Amino acid sequence: MKIIVTVKVVPEEIMIDKETGRVIRENVKSIFNPLDLLAAEEGRKLKEEFGGELIAVSMAPPKESELLSTLFKYGFDRVILLTDRAFAGSDTIATAFVLSSAIKKLVPDYDLILQGDYSLDGATGQLGGEIAALLGIPFVFQAISVKMDESLQIERSTEESIERYTLKLPALVSVRRGINNGIAVNLFSLMDEMEKSVETYTNKELNFPEEKTGKSGSKTDVIDVIQVELPVSTELIKEGGAEHLADFLEKAGVV
């Protein structure tokens, strides 16, 4: 079973450049998108149960190769970095094109793609559906359980209910917070971090049409960014909490 996890590298602290409307990534510590690590844990468990390969695919600047190499200690067999100046400035459509095209080219016999529901820096939640559409495979988001028997069994949480899906492979599933407690270092894989290396591919090797990547391939543009600062005030109430709350709600026009 070949399981791909799309892993995004995000800034530890999210700051927006007001002139460009884009996330500031220079001189900021990078981390893995936390929800993608939850997806990685689901992939690790499936690999442990059914065997096969666990493969990370990430589109990121070349400097993130060192961070990506740490994925080997979590049990990944391969880590693929897609990096090129032509990919810079990609929105979700252009990113989905690069990732889906790279998967078809580099891991054509994949069985399952896992990822987090959204990333900390963009938080659009659009990427999974776009990749699945480009690959022509089933897609379920907000998964709270990923199981495998004769087919893929997914539980999805909504505000009203728990939905259950049975999918034929290949498929793409994005997971939500709470599906597990996160991925832990695999003691048997600690040496892999030193012995294995990140596979790096630029557009010279991939040969993707540049009009479909980066800013040229993006269908959206940021017109303006407004940072909203909400007024915050606190009051410590030691006695008569219920009366204070009722009075507050009445003054606020809630009751």
In short:
This protein is of the alpha/beta class. The protein has one domain: 3-Layer(aba) Sandwich (Rossmann fold), CATH 3.40.50.620. It contains 8 helices and 11 strands.
How far apart are the termini? 57 Å
Strand content: 15-25%
CATH superfamily: HUPs
Unreliable stretches (pLDDT < 50, length at least 5) are none
Q: Provide the structure class.
A: alpha/beta
The level 1 CATH classification is Alpha Beta
Number of helical segments?
8
Strand order of the largest sheet: 9-8-7-10-6-1-4-5-11
Radius of gyration (CA) equals: 21 Å
SSE blueprint and pairings:
Layout: E1 2-6, E2 9-11, E3 30-32, H1 34-50, E4 53-59, H2 65-69, E5 78-82, H3 92-106, E6 112-116, H4 127-135, E7 139-148, E8 152-157, E9 162-167, E10 171-175, H5 192-195, E11 199-201, H6 203-206, H7 214-217, H8 241-251
Parallel strand pairs: 1-4, 1-6, 4-5, 5-11, 6-10, 7-10
Antiparallel strand pairs: 2-3, 7-8, 8-9
Write structural notes for this entry.
- By secondary structure, this protein is an alpha/beta fold.
- The protein has one domain: 3-Layer(aba) Sandwich (Rossmann fold), CATH 3.40.50.620.
- Helix content is 27%, strand content 23%.
- It has helices at residues 34-50, 65-69, 92-106, 127-135, 192-195, 203-206, 214-217, 241-251, and strands at 2-6, 9-11, 30-32, 53-59, 78-82, 112-116, 139-148, 152-157, 162-167, 171-175, 199-201.
- The strands form 2 sheets. It has a 9-stranded mixed beta sheet with strand order 9-8-7-10-6-1-4-5-11, sandwiched between helices.
- Helix 3 packs across helix 4.
